[in-house]
């Protein structure tokens, strides 16, 4: 059984991505997103701006050829495209959440405010949990 098929059978997509990002080489002796973030931006990965995160993503899958600290036109285009995708995902999620709030507000309008507020908040939290698990 090929290793990738075995991994996909045993691990979730989220786990595979997590391990890959912790092992990817981002330069000579720089392994993982956290190390790359510290080396190139002097801050933890959790504090990266959207632009910085997109730049790290843009150099994958070959950060030896596509360098974070020596941007090529190709890497800049990929960084821009990745940022665009991040923005689109954010807009889609925001729109879905707004639609859910409107739907749950109008569908539960005859119930007590406390009951329907709890109801749609729980639905939104479940939706967000599912999205995060998907990513």
Describe this structure in words.
With 135 residues, the protein is mainly alpha-helical. Helix content is 70%, strand content 4%. It contains 6 helices and 2 strands, in the order H-H-E-E-H-H-H-H. The protein has a two-stranded antiparallel ribbon. A hairpin with a 2-residue loop joins strand 1 (25-27) and strand 2. Helix 4 (50-58) packs across helix 5 (73-107) and helix 5 (73-107) packs antiparallel against helix 6 (113-134). The relative contact order is 0.07. The model has no long low-confidence stretch (mean pLDDT 77).
- Between the first and last Cα atoms, what is the distance in angstroms? 26 Å
Overall pLDDT level = 77
- The neighbouring-strand order within the major sheet is 1-2
Coarse morphology: globular
Mind describing the biggest β-sheet? 2 strands, antiparallel
Number of strands: 2
Radius of gyration: 20 Å
Order of helices and strands: HHEEHHHH
| Number of DSSP helical runs | 6
Structural class: mainly alpha
State which percent range the strand residues make up.
under 5%
The level of helicity is 55-70%
Name the poorly predicted regions.
none
Jot down its keywords.
135 residues; mainly alpha; two-stranded antiparallel ribbon; 2 strands; 70% helix
Topology of helices and strands:
Elements lengths: L2 H8 L2 H11 L1 E3 L2 E2 L1 H9 L8 H9 L14 H35 L5 H22 L1
Antiparallel strand pairs: 1-2
């Amino acid at each position: 059984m090929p290793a990738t098929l075995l991994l996909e059978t045993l691990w979730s997509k989220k786990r595979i991505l997590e391990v890959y990002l912790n092992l990817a080489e981002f330069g000579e002796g720089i392994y993982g997103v956290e190390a790359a973030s510290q080396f190139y931006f002097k801050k933890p990965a959790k504090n990266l701006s959207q632009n910085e995160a997109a730049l790290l993503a843009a150099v994958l899958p070959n950060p030896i050829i596509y360098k974070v600290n020596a941007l090529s036109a190709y890497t800049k285009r990929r960084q821009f495209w990745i940022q665009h995708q991040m923005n689109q995902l954010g807009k889609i999620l925001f729109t879905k959440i707004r639609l859910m709030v409107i739907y749950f507000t109008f569908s539960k309008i005859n119930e007590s405010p406390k009951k329907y507020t709890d109801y749609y908040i729980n639905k939104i939290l479940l939706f967000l949990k599912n999205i995060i698990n998907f990513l």
